[in-house]
């Protein structure tokens, strides 16, 4: 939640909580409107109408539609990153952590289909600098996966000939893609998808020794 | 290339070739304009300007902007489907074919980044019936991958406990995702990406026996 300095000052004090709630509601509604109409098709007027606010009141929170898109995308990206980092940042072997990271990422995606779709479809509507501000110059998300693959190679658990970046992109592809076909109440639960995708991914990159131990 | 009956009659005879060429050019330019501006942001006027045609002349080929999007998406989908079906429709074992299908799909995606992006980003702008007309009610593309996984299970080459649809979606996810990060002249060639993704995918789904034989 990026806030210009002047704003956070105004948001402190006794009225803090209601405004934070209002902010959360604004992000939620904006996400939904961007999803339904696309960023180009959505107007601040649409969002204000949905909130029962005057359009002018939105400028108390944001300066432009682009600001709002930035905040919407930042929010879901930050949340997802916390999930995968939290699962990577525990004691244990790199492949166990990678497995847990994949499951967490799939479940987070399945439970946040609308914000994920806005993130993936509308990111390119932001100027390059703001995109990089969100993703990080080193692609923070991808980095979590790549680091674990590299740690797996160092531990002799991941095939040495595999390029860690390609492995990370392959895993991110199959798990991100879930947002396009998963429907709540459909054939598979988020847990099933997470477990099966993790199994395929780990087997796809593991050394023979790990695979033998896995089946034994 | 869908053509209303009345049109194809008008397009026969001596002038056929120039008009087919004009049509190909129209599809190419429309793809580029939809890519740059998004379907919502693009107008038939933009496309006519780029072609150096009067907007009215476009109506000789199509009836609406939606028709054009349909034709653009159909074209790349049909082409990609021909690639994967061609590689699945040869003599050989199911996993060898799946490997070849994955390589073909990745290479096709890398060489058709712009039409693929339009296909994947703008498909949802078409009404459901037209989407299904392209994808097929059984999702023809996914079907090629799923059928090979099922054949692999029947042959004892693919883990029996794996859901073939989930396996197909996982492989399609990692290979489709390539359109988002591949850049010509970057670190990896299409051939490298295809080969590594195929290796990971096959290992991810194969039985122990196949894996042993693969390393031996």
Automatic annotation (TrEMBL), chains A, B:
<keyword id="KW-0805">Transcription regulation</keyword>
<protein>
    <submittedName>
        <fullName>TetR family transcriptional regulator</fullName>
    </submittedName>
</protein>
<dbReference type="Pfam" id="PF17932">
    <property type="entry name" value="TetR_C_24"/>
</dbReference>
<feature type="domain" description="HTH tetR-type">
    <location>
        <begin position="20"/>
        <end position="80"/>
    </location>
</feature>
<dbReference type="InterPro" id="IPR009057">
    <property type="entry name" value="Homeodomain-like_sf"/>
</dbReference>
<dbReference type="InterPro" id="IPR001647">
    <property type="entry name" value="HTH_TetR"/>
</dbReference>
<dbReference type="GO" id="GO:0000976">
    <property type="term" value="F:transcription cis-regulatory region binding"/>
</dbReference>
<keyword id="KW-0804">Transcription</keyword>
<feature type="DNA-binding region" description="H-T-H motif">
    <location>
        <begin position="43"/>
        <end position="62"/>
    </location>
</feature>
<dbReference type="GO" id="GO:0003700">
    <property type="term" value="F:DNA-binding transcription factor activity"/>
</dbReference>
<dbReference type="Pfam" id="PF00440">
    <property type="entry name" value="TetR_N"/>
</dbReference>
<keyword id="KW-0678">Repressor</keyword>
<dbReference type="InterPro" id="IPR036271">
    <property type="entry name" value="Tet_transcr_reg_TetR-rel_C_sf"/>
</dbReference>
<dbReference type="InterPro" id="IPR050109">
    <property type="entry name" value="HTH-type_TetR-like_transc_reg"/>
</dbReference>
<dbReference type="InterPro" id="IPR041490">
    <property type="entry name" value="KstR2_TetR_C"/>
</dbReference>
<keyword id="KW-0238">DNA-binding</keyword>
